[in-house]
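Risk register update: the risk of archive-format incompatibility is retired. Evidence:
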Amino acid sequence: MAKTSGTPARRTAARPTAKTTAQPAPQTSGTARRARAVVCAAAIIVVLALVSAFGWPGWAVRTPPEPVEVPAAVASATPTIAAQPLPTDASELVKILPEHVSNYVRGAVESSDEWRSAAPVEAYAVTYGNGDQSKDVRVMMGQWADAEEAETQYAKLAKALDGKQLAAGNIKVSGQNTGSYVVVAGKGSDGNATALWRNDTVVFRATGPQASVETVYKLFPV
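Archived output:
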């Protein structure tokens, strides 16, 4: 077949139609107003939160704790009278009695049979005073063969206390619970109180005017 002369025909193709991107419809005035209202509300909430945190009631403001009330006779008070010496044959238990607790000094230590029915290994009575007999504190002390027997005596004495409870809790030594304590105001208007505590195998009971008892039992080193 003979070739025909001339320019070969150019193939043409349909051009792709350009894609159009949908444009967001312009906000109506109502939508804009709602958006502004939301922003304003959020701003008001933030302002109120800041006022609450640092103004009133001020929950975010840290205030120093209230100072703890200390007894009138503080631990550093200087005794004005001399302590009675311990007996020459004092047991190891008696030797733990301090010469003074704040400005309350140790009087004569005497063996006691007040707790005889509880069968302590040994028991003693001693008075701590500051020269004013109306402020004397009488301390009873007894030791038992083991902590369980001491706890039994402590529970019995605590049950017998009659009056308004002023304080109660556990005694800890080096982080370990070694006993309990309770302080009870006496009945009537005499202003007396009793502090009872157990530390391991030893039980203590202090009785006298409430202010004196609170000073002695809080600062007693055993």
